Amino acid sequence: MDLAAKLTILADSAKYDASCASSGNNRGAGRGIGATRATGVCHSWSADGRCISLLKLLFSNHCVYDCAYCAIRRSNDVRRVSFTVDELVTLTIDFYRRNYIEGLFLSSGISGDPDYTMGKLCAVATRLRREEHFNGYIHLKAIPGASERLLNNAGLFADRMSVNIELPSEKSLSRLAPQKTKKAIIGTMGHVADRLLETREDAAHQLRHTPTFVPAGQSTQLIVGASPESDRSIMTLSSYFYRRVGMRRVYYSAFMPVSDDTRLPLIGSPPLRREHRLYQADWLIRLYKFELSDLFSEEQENIDSDLDPKAGWALRNYHLFPVEVQHADYEMLLRVPGIGLQTATRIIRFRRTTRLTFDLLRRFGVVMKRARYFITCNGGHLESRGLSLELLRLHLSDAVAAQPWQVGSSSQLELFESGRMPSRSGNNGTRDSAHVAGTRVPMRLDTRSSRSSRSNAQSREHHRDGVRIEYDGTFVGVLSLLQALSDEPTLQPAVIIKAGDMDASERDLFASTITIDVDESAAKRFAGDFPKQRSARHFELLYHAFLSDVYQIELAMIDFARNGQNVNARLLLEKAERRTLHDVHLFLGIVRFRLLQLDLLQADMEPDCDILRLLAPHFARRMPHERWCIVDRKRDTVALYENGGLHFADHASDHITPSGDSSTGCEGLDRMESLWHDYVRHIAIEERRNPSLQQHFLPKKYWRHLTEMAPHLHPSESDD
Q1: What is the DSSP string of 429-485?
Q2: Alpha carbon distances (Å) from 191 to 147, 164, 170, 207, 294
Q3: 98, 672 contact by CB (below 8 A)
Q4: What does the pLDDT look like over 106-152, one tens digit per residue?
Q5: Fewer beta carbons within 10 Å, N or C terminal of the chain?
Q6: Residues sharing a CB contact under 8 Å with residue 528, sequence separation 6 or more, in sequence order
Q7: Widest distance between CA atoms in the chain
Q8: What is the CATH number of the domain that holds 259?
Q9: Is 424 a residue whose pLDDT tops 60?
Q10: Contact 61/110 with Cβ under 8 angstroms?
């Protein structure tokens, strides 16, 4: 059987494993290829809206077990295939070089016995690490019942290991998975946990040559809805794993009927809402320091499907509210519905020097739709305390989960990152305006990509008295501008014009203009003085904001440079910075390299923000011994890496292969592109299909340069 057929079958069999994380470990580049980031990177989004960061495959779908819920169980009539070690290693390296994946997630059916299966997984990891010098992410499945020697060997090469318990009770395991025992599964988890603890203790004592052992920890998975256990039982087990086994993550997977086994419940559709609520509860336990008793009342066994668990706790403890945001401690702020981790941090930081208002809270990211019922600001209320609990519950029901792009999503962080609510336009949640107590607060970040945005921004600037200033549009130019305005504090700019950014008719509108020439000595003076007067972080904020696509961001830079206590300017800069860093994080994953020459990998991109100089160092670290280039087609700039050096140049189109040129003399190029497209298509779960969620995380404007979305590979799907 050829590789494409094996990939299709074994990717399809692996898709029900919910784990998709490529985070938790920093691994530097060595003499081979690859490096990892502790934050992880998402490289694509499947048709069901789930993140793809790892090449998720089974080594084999041969299995001696007969688990009722499993697609590859022994009694199921499926075509049985297995990879070879060479095939998996080749796929991983070739996909990684093209930036399709961040690493490998490898599991397997139990073919033969646990030791034989574990040995095959170890062989792949050993080959990748020792022979190919692969420094990317590796997640291995730990097979319950395998010898400690094999588990120890696997842990030396893997970033993360996982043992899926699947069902919450011994009774359900014996009924639905008779060959599995809770004792064997917990025992394997315990051994991995003990080895992790030993390694950390050795490292703490600064012992030389302490080997790393699964530095990203271990995880597990629970199937939701295949057995009758309640949400309380499931979360009790999860809480035990976090407290006693040191589990890094527990994943919850809604039961998908893949067979007509009579032991399984009859369901109309997968319990995606229940899975969603369990992830919310799990997040509260892990990061928000909630206890299990906070999530369930005495008589409650299941989480309310119409109310997120944080809002449920707030209603059950309504006597603790309202919270005064000007004085409440961090832990209590986190208990307020509509306030997340980052938002609470912003409130604590800004209230030290600023008197908070509801307008500012909204701009910090507080979701007032929910928080308004539970907070006061300097003694002021937005809502009457006379509302009944029944009416409050009605207002809070489905405040988050009813959004179609979040139900069943694997990105549960979005539920608690207040102020960054997803939008269908893919603009990272920026709103045109906010209305608080009848007051309109401008919240819009206009971008350079729209001429109408430009004119709107200009028309709003007419109320700002001052002169119009022109500069060359470079960062050195803007530093020269900032230094010139620092030397002339009475000069008040109203509009900033970039040279070459306007046509003749527009320039006539700004006939009275001061031009600031590039002055490298002035720019160096500002770059040296500003971090001393403020901080290096503030200078970095200016740089990141400048790289954004926010029109007239220079005005906020000027206001902030002149007065560091200007809250409005600071918030605008931070919002612009988030746009830039959002683009960086997105394109770390969706840059796609093509082998256009025997020794040159080329990637084309068109980001909203000018991120090439922030992006390229990541790939220099990731592929230190390759020759590659990244072309920003929107700005006609290029980053070229060769002979260990990274170079940037303008006018890339004069030297680089035109975008879309598919000519190549390299064997295997089209084959790898086709294999990747087939993989992405088969890793999606049809019952979860959610095109709007996929497009939210992976907007269509970027599909042009994505191999998995290339029209020539799947013309029938190009109009979906």
Answers
A1: T--SEEEETTEEEE----BTT-HHHHHHHHHHHTTS-SEEEEE-SSHHHHHHHHHHH
A2: 10, 14, 20, 22, 31
A3: yes
A4: 999 998 899 999 999 999 999 999 999 999 999 999 999 999 999 99
A5: N
A6: none
A7: 83
A8: 3.20.20
A9: no
A10: no
d(CA 43, CA 65): 33
Find the domain containing 654 and state its range. Answer: 599-664
Assess whether pLDDT exceeds 80 at residue 711.
no
Q: Three-class SS string for 127-177? A: HHHHHCCECCEEEEECCCCCCHHHHHHHHHHCCEEECCCECCCHHHHHHHC
CA angle 652, 658, 662 (to 5 degrees): 145
Whether residue 298 is contained in a domain is answered as no
What would the 3-class secondary structure string for 701-715 be?
A: HHHHHCHHHCCCCCH
Q: Which two tokens stand for residue 138?
A: 């590796």
Q: What angle, 0 to 180 degrees and rounded to 10, lies between the N-to-C axes of helices 272-287 and 309-316?
A: 70
Secondary structure of residue 541 in the 3-state scheme: helix
Task: Tell me the backbone φ, ψ of residue 481, rounded to 5 degrees.
Answer: -65, -45
Q: Domains in the chain: how many in total?
A: 4
Cα 622 to Cα 589: distance, rounded to the nearest angstrom:
12
State how far the Cα of 138 lies from the Cα of 154, in Å rounded to an integer.
Answer: 10
CA distance 107 to 128: 16
CB 161 within 8 A of CB 153: no
Phi, psi of 294 (to 5 degrees): -75, -25
The per-residue pLDDT for range 436-483, each reduced to its tens digit, is: 333 333 344 666 554 444 444 444 444 456 789 999 999 999 999 999
The rounded distance, in Å, linking the Cα atoms of 52 and 212 is 26
Instruction: Give buried/exposed letters for 129-144 (b at 16+ CB in 10 A, else e).
Output: beebebbbbbbbbbbb
Question: Among 129-138, 212-221, 258-267, 434-443, which is the least confidently predicted range?
Answer: 434-443
CA distance 497 to 548: 16
- 336 CB-near residues (< 8 Å, 6+ apart): 314, 321, 323, 371, 374, 375
Q: Is residue 53 part of a domain?
A: yes
**Left (φ > 0), alpha (ψ -120 to 50) or beta: where does 500 sit?**
left
Ramachandran angles phi, psi of 501, nearest 5° = -95, 0
Exposure b/e, 659-688, CB count within 10 A at least 16 = b: eeeeeeeeeebeebbebbbbbbbbbbbeeb
Same-domain check for residues 376 and 499? no
Strand pairing report for 600-605 and 54-58: unpaired
Q: Are residues 355 and 457 in the same domain?
A: no
399 and 505 assigned to the same domain: no
Checking phi first, is residue 135 left (phi over 0); if not, alpha (psi -120 to 50) or beta?
alpha
pLDDT at 508: 54
**In the prediction, which pLDDT does 83 show?**
97
pLDDT of res. 717: 47
What's the whole-number average pLDDT of the chain? 86
Shared domain for 100 and 230, answered yes or no, is: yes
User: Residue 458: what pLDDT?
Assistant: 46
Residues 560 and 607 in one domain: no
Q: Are residues 7 and 85 in the same domain?
A: yes
- Give the β-pairing of 375-376 and 323-324: parallel
Beta-carbon contacts of 89 under 8 Å, excluding residues fewer than 6 positions away, are 124, 127, 128, 131, 132
**What is the rounded CA–CA span in Å between residue 441 and residue 434?**
5
- Determine the pLDDT at residue 30: 74
The Cβ of residue 441 has, within 10 Å, a number of other Cβ atoms equal to 15
Cut 0.70: pTM above it: yes
Q: Is the pLDDT of residue 403 over 90?
A: no
- Asked, as a colleague might, if the bond just before 322 is cis with ω within 30 of 0, I would say yes
